[in-house]
Protein 1
Amino acid sequence: MLNAIMMKSCLGMIKVSKFIVFFLLFADVVILGYILIGNNNISVLNPHGLIALKERNLIIIATLFSLAAVIPVFIMTFLFAWKYRENNSKAKYDPDWDHDTKLELTWWAAPFVIILILAVITWKSTHELDPYKSINAGTKPITIQVVALQWKWLFIYPEQNIATVNFIQFPDRTPINFELTADAPMNSFWIPQLGGQMYAMAGMGSHLHLIADAPGEFAGSAAEISGRGFSGMKFVARASSQADFNAWVQSVKESQNKLGLPKYNKLAAPSENNPVALYSSVEEGLYNKIIMKFMAPSGGNMHMQGTNHQ
Amino acid sequence: MMGFIFGKLTFAALPHEWYTIGGAYSMVAMGVGVLVVLTYLKRWKWLWRQWLTSTDPKKIGMMYIIVASLMFFRGGLDAGLIWLQQALSAGGSHGFLSADHFQQIFTAHGDIMVFFVTMGFLFGLINLIVPLQIGARDLAFPFLNSLGFWLYVAGAVLINLFFVLGGNFAATGWLAQAPLSELQYSPGVGVDYWIWSLQVSGLGTLLGGINLLVTILKMRAPGMTLMKMPLFVWTSLCSMVLVISVFPILTVTMGLLFLDRFAGFHFFTTGFGGNAMMYTNLIWMWGHPEVYILILPAFGVYSEVVATFSQKRLAGYISMVCATIAITLLALSVWLHHFFTMGAGADVNAFFGMMTMVIAIPTGAQVFNWLFTMYKGRIRFFTPMRWFLGFVSTFTLGGVAGVMMAVPPIDFQVHNSLFLVAHFHTMIIGGALFGIFAGFTYWFPKVMGFRLNERLGRYAFWCWIVGFFTSFVPLYILGFMGATRRLDHYDVSTGWQPLFMVSAAGLVIIACGVALQIAQVIMSIKQRKQNLDTTGDPWNGRTLEWSTASPPPFYNFAIIPKVASRDAFWEMKFSDARASKDKHYEDIVLSKNTAMGIYVAGFVFLVGFALVWHIIWLALVGLFGAIACVIIRTFDEETEYVIPAAEVAKLEAGRNANE
């Protein structure tokens, strides 16, 4: 009895279900379109620096080339599926046709050619956009040393001898030479609007070169999971005019807060959702000391807490 | 003394958070429920003799699929919690999960879906179908098959055990990246649970891989040369080659990590010369081929489904085989693309980027082969064929994303973002899972003897497709918006929340699809009389599994078929070979049931459990117990039994009379 009722309702549902499917797909498109049009937050596609711009262009080029292969496949799939449906008696039926050397060579060659072009693009762009390569913009680059901690970013400006937590400022149209390490689990340093990310790893220094093409504030994040507090491990990257940057450095210099070793050790202890902090001076060679402490069993030449083995 | 007996397992470790208490209660309740039902129905002996101790690959295959389905609900529940948290937890709201709990959930979600759901389903399908497709009665090593299955079950129990016995799960992401997974940053037992549940089930996978490789190479019916094997057998073979090549890497990597955590070694620690980058390399040397281990058998399913439902030969068989082998080899040479952002030079990055793209060539050729199989066919749109079309729709999207990410400078911008998450879900759901669903529907009548309800299957399919796009297209966009993966909280100003909500809505639609699939199986069992498959060949099939009855007799084939061509059964239908009623039966030798697989896996489970909690004596008991069981088994010389030819004739006559 129950079955009979279910069967009946199923029959009635055929047309309804088709309607629902198309309605839902349509709703998807409308909702996503609405969100996208009203949204200028798509940071990767709205670059504010040379590197991010080139990476964005590369995204578009790679997409177009792969679409060149994918769209014909897509069309052919549904065309064939429709044309050779069982109740279309007009279409040819050739159950034993299974091989045509020329055709098969064509469909090995087609993806081959596209991949060949993409491979050339890959080789060239990977070298051009190597994060380790410095940017030549005609201005003197600025160095910022980045230390991933649990769970905040420490930034050291060796040339200015200042340091900040979860905030950086730098002049626009000036290449920034980021040097990265970690005193914590591996992390990934990412400012999407300026360019791609780079890992920060304990006991190692890595490099990343970025540049901002105009003043602005950009969101930066910790892209790799590093434990409990990593969702709150965000920072703001502010590009400003050179004059504004100089003024900002001066204001930081006036701070009473100095980053000596004991203070660093306190800072390095795990903490979450840290506010911005500014330090008017930094222990000499702190960045190198942080790297070196993982190099020697004694913990290098500085006393550190919470590291080394138990 | 207590420390010696219980290791780190103390009363304080027992469940005390709402989710572990809830999990513990519901699992104990389910367990008691099953026990009561079994006792009430007096099915204990039946269960033990007919199923649990069976070495019949058909029964083991079904048990794989049942366990994988159970794990699918666990993994799906995790997915629901992840989505709900991310849809709610913006700005002032912090959702309903703590960061630590959230991280455990997505770690478990990833591990369960890859190791226990997708792998379980695939081993199930391969066990059920490969012996039938190659005209064999059993696998090469039936006992090993049973042992492999029970090790998989032991791993599945171990990964859920913390609910009942306390502790927690790893909160490190599904691959437990070092140094986060080292004792210094993950001091609890979570990572140890991760290590041992995967170690135990991984051992089962490796044994299964060896077993299936030997089976396919040595047990084929007379006349079935390698180039006459059905594509599903080919892709299973290549998948098993990858299993044998890379699972030892996983075993060693997790072993080294355990030494770090247990014995104070420094393979991957931050200090003392440890090198976390090496962990990343090793885990992806296993991890990337693992993707192809999952996807290759699915490609095999699509090849079978497209040919059968187009009622036409598979186009370009030879290029299909070449493409499969090419993918297998290339799969081993691309692992570095998982960490372009680790600072390797441009030469290294560019090389691995290009190798990754090269895989698109054989994959593209395979897609074209499927298209030209449909060309000039007579396509019948049963559910498996729909899953195939769904696969083409999603897989092409995921393929575009994949080629993009193979370009290192693009990867710098999408690595660790939700774009990546969307990409691999497109590949694993759209590729592997849809393939599993296609295979499940396609071979269901062969295994059970009746077809699945078409209409509910269609509804489920549409829910999955709509739900999939609703769920994952927003994630691609979120990735471009700078949303990184695994966030338990984000700011409202990011503008991400609406997209997270759309994505969560998509998951609800997918859940409807799953509900419809359950309803489909229940309805089909209820209405099995209407959908009985009396011929053994419900789809006008092409390969040998359709030449025997549905469900097949326990010996699969009364007479081992002789194979003369690729689509062996299709050819038989049109030749006189089938018409000849010359039935010359021979004695059939089959493997006896054995409980030894359960015992060995049980002892190995003890080893895993004991090492999680550092209970040394128990680990030794488990180790020696397992070794003793294996030795006892080797002295058992009566592992097989014979069904005399006369008995076979009687059984066959009985079956024919019933038809």
Note: Chain B has a mean pLDDT of 92.
Protein 2
Amino acid sequence: MEPLLDIRGLRTYFFLRHAVVKAVKHLSVFPGEMVGLVGETGSGKSVTALSVLRLIQPPGRVISGEIIFQGRNLLALSEAEMNNSVRGRAITMIFQNPRSCLNPVLTAGTQIARVYQTHCGGTTRQARERALEFLRLVQIPDPESVFNRYPHQLSGGMCQRVMIAMALICEPALVIADEATTGLDVTVQDQILTLMRELRNKTHTAQLFITHDLGVVAETCDRVLVMYSGRIVEAGAVNEVYARPLHPYTSALLNSVPDLRKDSRPRSIPGEVPDPRNLPPGCPFHPRCDRCTDMCRVQEPILVSRGGSRQVACHASVQTEE
Amino acid sequence: MRLLVYVTKRLLLLVPTLLGVSIVCFTLIRVLPGNPVYMIVGPYATLEEIARVKADLGFDKPIYQQYLIYLNDVLHGDLGYSWHTSQPVARDLLQRFPLSFELSTISLVIALGVAIPLGVVSAVHRGSWLDHIARVLAVIGVSMPLFWSGLVLSYVFFFRLHWAPPPLGTLDPMMQPPPRLTGMILIDSLIARRWDAFQSALAHLALPAVTLAFSMIGSVTRMTRSSMAEVLHSDFVRTATAFGLPRRTVIYRDALQNALLPVVTMVGMLYGFALGGTVLVEMIFGLAGMGSYAFGSIMNMDYAGVEGVVLVVAVVFVVVNLLVDILYAIIDPRISYR
Amino acid sequence: MTLPIASGPAGNGLRWKPGLSRQLDYSWYVIRRNPVTLLGFVVVTLFVAVGLLAPLIARRDPIEVAPAFALQSPCRQFWFGTDQYGRDVFSRIVHSARLDLFIALTSVGLAFAIGTAIGALAGYYGGALDATLMRLTDIVLAFPPFILAMGTAAALGAGTANIIYVVGFIQAPIYARLVRGEILSARERPYAEAARCSGNSGLGVVFIHLLPNCLPPLLVQVANNLSWAILNAAGLSFIGLGVRPPTPEWGSMISEGVQFMMSGRWWLFMFPGLAIFVTILGFNLLADGLRDVFDPRLRW
């Protein structure tokens, strides 16, 4: 099956005063699947999403690579084409802190309808009808009343639902959710994730979940990609990766999640996340890795396929296999 | 509905504020000056005359009673008697207020009309040559004393270049003024269809208005610029862009609407500044407004005149601020909700 | 970040907080780096220097009348020309710098002292005291500043001392509000509680411990207010409510010079005005640069 979104060799660099921070990505999303992109803060997850929609601001810049979406290289399109056919239409994105993502002086409904009118045309009434329809779709109890409310009058969960409605109203092929549930109450989080799953089942929209929360990924996604220091270090089906992690970082991450059944303390990963401006040579994880070899210190491992959808970038795992 | 509650609350707050203003004005006019009695009777007065004037002025009564008398007078439109114009202060002010109002309003409109676009363009095109020019203009405008820039403009455009008319009032001295309806020369000449008067008034008001406007442009530009720059980096602008809304809409509707909110609150303060500035500008350009009346009163040691101006201007300022607050509550849905 | 240190009952007095000196260092760095801010700093330093050294810079007596030399345009003997009484304009401008420096410092000092005290007490003790004090400052703020200055100066009469009181009085509410806000947030912090527990009286806590840590935003305000004080003093002098003649003051020099403007004697109003303009410009450029130290979001 052809991937819906295929990111190849994407290099996004940030030109800071004294250093250049690099982020490299290879990533695919297939139609209708839910993919999780996991990593700690600062691992470069959001940069991926922003690069796809070409929202990277100076001092950042996309240096090289290809982002193939529905047969076109997004990096080769003009700004106008991005606005007209991609952003808000074929690929949409929802963010953390939904209330601050909405314009405070416009009503929720106006903002949703506006997205529809911009991309699909139609009269104000038609847009309003469609907006109400989608407010119902995201299970908002009183759509007419919420339509006329301002963002500060809505709860965090409601705002996120409004954003989801906005994201779906033009029936995109891919929705990117960047830490969409972070900061919401756990119960609300659960509701939103259930909603996203149901929507995928109903509309077959592919979804890319960017999060630091392994639990979210476990519940919602089909496939997972693990990121560290701007690179993808492991990929595969969720249940496989979680059951049998290949990369030391992945297994350490999974071990660090506290288990209510066990009586032991959660094990943290020794060391610290490296300063992106000053990465260690070789594999960026090697200073903290318990399976570090000489090659790890010198040469950066590349992502290799390990059967099926499994990929891993680790010298040690290759050696273990052999 | 909530808006109504907010407006009512603010209107109720108006009363203590105005009372406070009146107390301060009373203090200025009665409590502070050494002995105004001598001002009135002169240095050769007899003891009886002094006593009589004292009783007349109510100086023999306790302070709070004097205040109540003062308040009562004010509420009945009696602001005292101006001895240098031989008229009640209230009548003088009624005559002169419209011109000052006209001048400050025109200046404010010019200032906003120039500064807001400048600030917006500055923020949108940060670092460009336009941005640098705007920045330079803004800091110069804020640093130039109003009375000096007026003089410089007058010197350059009237004395040297002969482009502007002589700084002597609002109309050509040879011209018949239009019938006085509102007291505002531009409006009166329009109503009377006197295009010659309108043109002449425009020419005469140009330099004073520009002077006053120039002093305000600096701060408005800076405020607009920083507010706009902040909004352009906000989450919702990024989100709007992420949803493919055209750049034009995102900047000039979403961002601008939000960025202008702090500027609106500034307008009230600016108006106060403009009213204060009329004192200086009217004197320089020979305009017969409230400001030059205050100046004349000062020159002639006419306390009633000065303090009358202070009271009226303060009241206008308070009212304008109230209107600005209400306007703000209307355009920002977050305010009346709280 | 080093936490502010609370000390015992007033015996220890004021400790030099490490954070404050770090901020001063950074301020100096900012001043050096940005050429515009540096220019502002240079101008302000020049103003202070001229003010302090006035008698040395301008040897001629600014008040002495010399009708023989009246109304001369700028030349080698009189750099800025002479006025209608034959007084050297340059000398008068230099001496006025000294006067304005004095007025600025004292009036802002007065405003700072009164306003800070009011704001600190209102913010710390809250309740009825807070409400009353804030009502009072609100009433002062209900007037357009220059109008209130004019009215008060008219009531008190002209004279240098009166200008200082007036200008200080109208600026005090600004400090009161600022300090009140700072104290309101500061009094909830752990170090405030520590100071209370160490046995300090309420006033001790406020003035010795809380206030020094609230200083940075106040400094920016001070820089702004110094220029504002000069502007107001000049404005009041211009309309005749300020410094009494024959003491030279930039504002009154301009108003005296107006009568000669139409006969082409531009130097009488041009130079004093330029002096005000350049000085205030310097303060503004400096204040802009310093604001970046304390609130980078507002950077131009």
Note: DSSP finds 14 helices and two strands in chain B.
